[in-house]
Amino acid sequence: MPPSRKDGPAVDDTSAWRIALPRTTAAVPMARALIRTALTDPDRCPDSDTAELLTAELVANAVEHTSGAAPIELVVELRPNGCQVEVHDGDPQPPGDLTAGRPGPQPDPWQEGGRGLLLIRALSSACGHRPTARGKAVWFTLPSRATATA
After folding, report:
1. pTM
2. Are the CB atoms for 118 and 100 separated by under 8 Å?
3. Per-state percent for the chain, helix, strand, coil, to nearest 5
4. pLDDT tens sequence across 25-65
5. What CA–CA distance (Å, rounded) separates 113 from 127?
6. Could you tell me which residues are beta bridge partners of residue 128?
7. Coil, helix or strand for 129?
8. What are the b/e assignments for 71-99, b being 16+ CB within 10 Å?
9. Does position 89 have pLDDT exceeding 80, yes or no?
């Protein structure tokens, strides 16, 4: 149910974008472009650079670690207190430990990859994954700038 206003009817203060992305490396710049488009209101939105980085990590992980031809789906939901970004893929396997604030395995400093989940845990206000009918959704949330500075 949408939030109510004292001076009028109920108002839904949430905006959402949903886009299917190819399961190729082209998905990453497409996802970054959607995030830049969605996060244009500086009062309601979180730091768009952080949102772009974390979204790129989730999409890159979905491209790299899933198989099949099914597209990846990116869902961006703006809320009154920030945003939530989800990446849906067809693999039901959990992505690893996404418990924010909890130390996970340290990436090998000599390897090129392995830092995505660490960044998501460290920079988001909350993150996790959930099963879906077609696989899983991996998500993170970021507070709005107003919420983050309050």
Report:
1. 0.79
2. no
3. 30, 25, 45
4. 999 999 999 999 888 876 666 788 999 999 999 999 999 98
5. 20
6. 139
7. strand
8. bbbbbbbbbebbbbbbbbbbeeeebbebe
9. yes
**Closest to 85 (Cα-Cα) out of 123, 135, 42:** 123
As a whole number of angstroms, the distance between CA 56 and CA 100 comes to 18
Q: Which residues of 32-62 are buried (b: 16+ CB within 10 A; e: fewer)?
A: bebbeebbeeeebbbebebbbbbbbbbbbbb
What is the DSSP-derived secondary structure letter of residue 109? T
Calpha distance 4→27 (Å, rounded):
37
Note the residue count of the chain: 150
| Closest of 112, 124, 4 to residue 60, by C-alpha | 112
CB 128 within 8 A of CB 98: yes
